Amino acid sequence: MLSMFSYVEVLGDAGEAVADLKQLFSLSDKFGYSEWIQFDASIVRGLAYYTGIVFEGFDRGGKLRAICGGGRYDRLLSTFGGDDIPACGFGFGDAVIVELLKEKGLLPELSLQVENIVCALDPGLKEAAATVATILRGKGQSVDLVLENKPLKWVFKRAARIKANRLILVGDSEWQRGMVSVKVLSSGEQHEIKLDELE
Q: Which stretches make up the Class II Histidinyl-tRNA synthetase (HisRS)-like catalytic core domain (predicted)?
């Protein structure tokens, strides 16, 4: 792979693109990260809105595909009706970074625990279940909202798998009275609670 300066020798020093690349490498040297970047003329980003230098980020060993890729796009906002402003950004590959973190033993082990699992007992109550989830989230509670038409047995299995504390069932008769059925999964205790009393 050519260094930036070898590239300039081959293509000459004329043109805005070459000037931009020279400035990038000069600044990277001054900021102390030049050892982390290399010039690669084979990188071509497929999106038409880039207006300057494009880039891809790789793991140091170069064994994985790009972790991220992006570039300069100074005229992107006008395509959405806004005013153009200088901008630079990238898309991040979550699958690649997870593999890299696993390889280096840096992937944290997060225990999956959700405080509430909310389920509508009737397909017509999905919006009601979403309302209950929103109320709980507004009170700082974590919520897993089940919107698929799943049997109750599946919901209980899911609740056990994600270690939910409570199962909140939104049924038609309870909902008409402004209430939901709450089952505490550790004790099996179940009772009806008014929406404005949900904690």
A: 13-91
Could you tell me the pLDDT band of residue 60, with boundaries at 50, 70 and 90? confident
**Residue 40: which of 75, 66, 76, 73 has the closest Cα?**
66
CA–CA dist 190, 178 (Å, integer)? 17
Return the number of other C-beta atoms located less than 10 Å from residue 92's C-beta: 12
The residues spanned by each domain of the chain are 4-103, 116-197
The answer to whether domain 116-197 has CATH 3.40.50.300 is no
Cβ-Cβ contacts under 8 Å for 191 (sequence gap 6 or more): 181, 182
Sequence-distant (6+) residues with CB within 8 A of 149 are 123
Are the beta carbons of 186 and 166 closer than 8 angstroms? no
4-103: CATH superfamily? Bira Bifunctional Protein; Domain 2 (3.30.930.10)
Give per-residue pLDDT as tens, 141-163. 999 999 888 888 999 898 888 88
